[in-house]
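Training component of the fellowship. As part of building independent skills, the fellow (R.M.) carried out the full modelling exercise for a liganded target. The chosen ligand was alpha-L-rhamnopyranose. The inputs are recorded below so that the supervisory panel can assess the work.
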Amino acid sequence: MASFCVLDEFEVHKNDDFLRIAEELKPELHEREIAPVSIVTLEQDGNQDPALVSEEAPDLLKDRLFKKDDSVILDFGTHYVGYLTLDLASAGSHQDAPAYVYLRFAERLDELAVNTAEYNGWISKGWLQEEYIHVDVLPAKLELPRRYAFRYLEIRVLDVSLKFSLMIKNVSARAVSAVKEEDVQLLETEDEMLRKIDEVSIRTLKNCMQLVFEDGPKRDRRMWLGDLRLQARANYRTFRNVSLVKRCLYLFGGLTFNEGKIPACIFLEPEIEPDDTYLFDYALLYGSALLDYYRATGDQKTLEDLYPIAIRQIEIGLTYLNEDGIIPDRSGEFWCFVDWGEGLNTQAASLAILIYSMRYGIRLAECMNDEETIHWLQKKLEELKREAVEHFWDEKQRLFVSGKDRQVSWATQVWMILAKVFDQEQNRELILRTIEVNPEFTMVSPYMYHHYIDALIRSGEKERALEEMKNYWGGMIRDGADTFWELYNPYNKYESPYGSVAINSFCHAWSCTPTYFLRKFYIPENK
Ligand code: RAM
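Fellow's submitted model of the complex:
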């Protein structure tokens, strides 16, 4: 079972200037009033697949009298992030007991089929979006203080009394985001699936764009560096809210710890604070996010401020090399993320990601005219490429292996391709070979799929990349996605890294990148 590891030592170095710049860029959130559009009924067929069986106008709620155990599921039409208000009243005799109400929010209808009482995963059940509320005096306007991520709302009356009924006069919500969906033009394409994939990507991105780029508005509601890097890429092609990216880059740059490491994620409340988690790959990818930002904006001042921090991550990464010139195996420690996926060995990928980040380091150094850094990085890069081939290339299988058991995974091949350990033609052979062999250790998160699509495109397999996007993200759409999910394993649709699909996030930042690929490589007139 996966778990997070906590660092023994944790000394934060705040850069007040950077944090001030980030604070000044804090966005005003846009608000929009929304209301349910229909009532739906969840009917289970004994399997885990619930079906939406009936629809009526939600107006019918107005005259409905709710007694003990009565319930209703409201559908807001699509996925939103926001705050809920209920206007409640009583009917019958004087209210002689509290109205006791259960509310449950769901991003996907079939979440409602999971019994939350049975959740026993390793991350907090506090993430399940449910409330038990006593309303002592009716009529009442119930304004829920928490923010929820949802399309569906289940309201269940746990109890009233024999002498009165509950009435739900009005249900509304205030949806929030740092951006407005209508600010992005729809993709001009005849291909209905591509149009849909693009639209769902944008909604996913929008709902994760709050005071920072959050990873998921249901969970974890914080900013992870790996997610930020991909969200920013999608954002440059769509909302182009570059100041939000700048804010987030300064937050990471302003909150390093110990020898200058960037934290894997940042909390915003009660005050901004880094998490005491280091992820080797996420920290290294900061440079790639910075270069993307610089290319999108030409903002030299930000580059100059944050460049030393990006290079520092590479220096720190290099300190982990052992006497063989490779990164020791720390798979299973939540130290180098790469992907969720039981048993995935990340040793070879960690070296590949170090090489990849050095390439970005060189490009950053070029933008800074920093000859000395260019020189040592280039030299080291060549060395590490040789070590990667020597230690991890299996000539017989014509694939890279990882760890002492010489595990063959998709993730390892993809990261070796992105690291450009080989030239483009060899990379093309490698990706085709991977597809042919279809290693047992597959990819499970859209985060890893993003890198797979990237690897295909960079190996000259652009058409295949498009097909794979349609299969993977299209698969989520065929399974009813309004926003793309944290995890989607087409071979195991109920997979969860946390012990239950109920706690998975179904609007997850790192899954929003098809819009980036489509608008960058396929339909550039939408740029
Ligand atoms: C999870 C979140 C987040 C991701 C980390 C590694 O907690 O899904 O998006 O970046 O894992």
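The panel noted the following from the submitted structure. The first strand starts at residue 12 and ends at 14. The pocket of alpha-L-rhamnopyranose is lined by residues 215, 220, 224, 226-227, 337, 486, 510 (CB under 6 Å).
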